[in-house]
């Protein structure tokens, strides 16, 4: 059995905290925890297990509600983070005690089992450790060390680190879970968030040597998460979905609940939602405290992945099944803990029953956009991304040449954190306008709501960085605050007359449109028509829409739904788009991207459900059915970045995520199915794509280290060159 890392000399730093001198470990650094070689040797003092984050390139923080959440909803991203060798910390907020019976609900002995909530909580943590160990080392029984970590003075949680790969760490807070998916129980994170209770108790797992606090207030949970962010100093933060899809009807339990607990019923687990909302509050508090290391955020859809087409291919799904088998103790291995070595409710059935879709799909609430980079008036490119809840900007120092510099605080505060997606529009006069989504948390007497926001460029500073005015609100298609929380991310398109069209999903799953000449003087929200017949049980459109104005000035909108892809088109320029004849396209496993087809129409690019196969589709003629050309398999998941370049040959540029999380470009025409180039680096979000002053395609990605990376064609239509990082400026570029 590997021994634990040697202790290091303790140092006292500002604020009174204890840290440790760094110890090199491969290509990353970490601060060694105290303790012995196994669980039984856990110390009783405050742990010193902390990353030397100022010398590490990147670190990952995953915040989940229950022990299986990251395996079901965050993979393959979680495994790629663990295998990168960088610090990867998963915070499990609840004990996950459920009904305290570690057996499938339909098993013969379930009803006669003794309720043992601490025992089941421990078994689930053991299952999470097994899955993480399998990802990191290939051995699900690889040993761990457990120690206390004091996130707040007097508030201890369990820190687990994998002895063979100590960059893999788990923090177990042990809060009582809601125990029901949607029944509004006061003793829950949701009850605490809404003020139904003042404190939420903890429930340590059987055999825990860490004396956890008896209860947390709402502020103490937020402060503990703030302390966790500071401890990890992440460049990538991953949470569950804070604003999930509502259920088709209200439950009896919700309608009969005390007033303070009433609200809409949702398709996701209430603990998933509350954990993400607490994390939203923690990030807002943390980022409001001054300069921080740049971090991106991804929010992963939970249970509603069951109601969307599968986004992962067969190979990735099989891997998820292996990890779920490890978590579910399918092999009945002996891990040395009498409480149990995994969650038998999952057992070998991770790809069966109600959770079948969870392992076959990975979706983030923000579908991403490829339109986050555009040329300024002088031809220099500018890229925009959300870091630490605010929009940051990078610019080329010279048109068509680079290098890039940034990030800069070119855009002011939106009055609160911006959701992790920004889209840029270039007006005919060369000025830029940014569109994003802002969530307002229910503090200070404000109602919890979402709204679309935009901000326009007003000039260029002396340093060559574009400057912007004040953010303005576009509101939301719905007026009720609770319903605005399901507002989709905007897709934009600009007409030849400078009219900007903004489309977004509303609460009911319809598409709403708002237009404004020059990006101002906005029309009211108008709904596009939807298919006739019996309304679907769940919202028609979940996310992943796109819009484009073709050469003749007609506005096109596309949206993936459960069984196909819908297409709307303006009958004439300036008219409201109308639903066209059925496209005949098979379900999409990703957001759908629109590009000019090189003639006078559009083509749609997406991943076919269950295969990750990239397809390029375009209308075939009067029949309405679209023809499809399939690209060579590239793996991965998520939206395909696409743009049709102007100039001779009108080549189309694509960029995808491969099955190792790397960016893979293509600079060949859509008729070439074998045009994928060598993969680049791992990234977050969606690649941005545009055209430089020389007509060459340019791709940009946000790296997992929070830096911008760019690659450029040597000439229009040629292959892309090497990826290069933006240069950090010494002044004005800190986030």
3D structure, described in words:
There is one protein chain. Strand 19 and strand 20 (449-460) form a beta hairpin. The chain contains ten helices and 41 strands. The strands form eleven sheets. Strands 7-8-9-6-5-12-13 form a seven-stranded mixed sheet. Strands 18, 19, 20, 21 and 22 form a five-stranded antiparallel sheet that branches. The protein is α+β, with helices and mostly antiparallel strands.
Summary of the model, kept short:
Helix content is 13%, strand content 30%.
Quaternary = single chain
* Overall strand count: 41
Strand order of the largest sheet: 7-8-9-6-5-12-13
Radius of gyration: 25 Å
Shape: globular
| Percentage of residues assigned to helices | 10-25%
Tell me, rounded to a whole number, the average pLDDT.
88
Number of helices: 10
Residue share in β-strands? 25-35%
Low-confidence stretches: 1-55, 730-734
**Kindly, what is the distance between the CA atoms of the first and last residues, rounded to a whole number of angstroms?**
43 Å
Specify the biggest β-sheet. Answer: 7 strands, mixed
**What is the SS-derived class?**
alpha+beta
Lay out the secondary structure.
Layout: E1 10-12, E2 18-20, E3 23-25, E4 28-30, E5 59-64, H1 69-73, H2 77-83, E6 87-94, H3 117-137, E7 144-152, E8 155-162, E9 165-175, H4 189-194, E10 200-201, E11 215-216, H5 218-232, E12 236-240, H6 252-255, H7 270-287, E13 296-300, H8 314-327, H9 356-360, E14 373-375, E15 381-387, E16 390-396, E17 404-408, E18 423-426, E19 432-440, E20 449-460, E21 466-468, E22 472-475, H10 481-484, E23 491-494, E24 499-505, E25 511-517, E26 526-527, E27 546-549, E28 555-560, E29 565-569, E30 578-579, E31 593-596, E32 602-608, E33 613-619, E34 626-630, E35 641-644, E36 652-657, E37 663-666, E38 683-691, E39 697-703, E40 708-712, E41 724-725
Parallel strand pairs: 5-6, 5-12, 6-9, 12-13
Antiparallel strand pairs: 1-2, 3-4, 7-8, 8-9, 10-11, 14-15, 15-16, 16-17, 18-19, 19-20, 20-21, 20-22, 23-24, 24-25, 25-26, 27-28, 28-29, 29-30, 31-32, 32-33, 33-34, 35-36, 36-37, 38-39, 39-40, 40-41
Helix pairs in contact: 3-8, 5-7
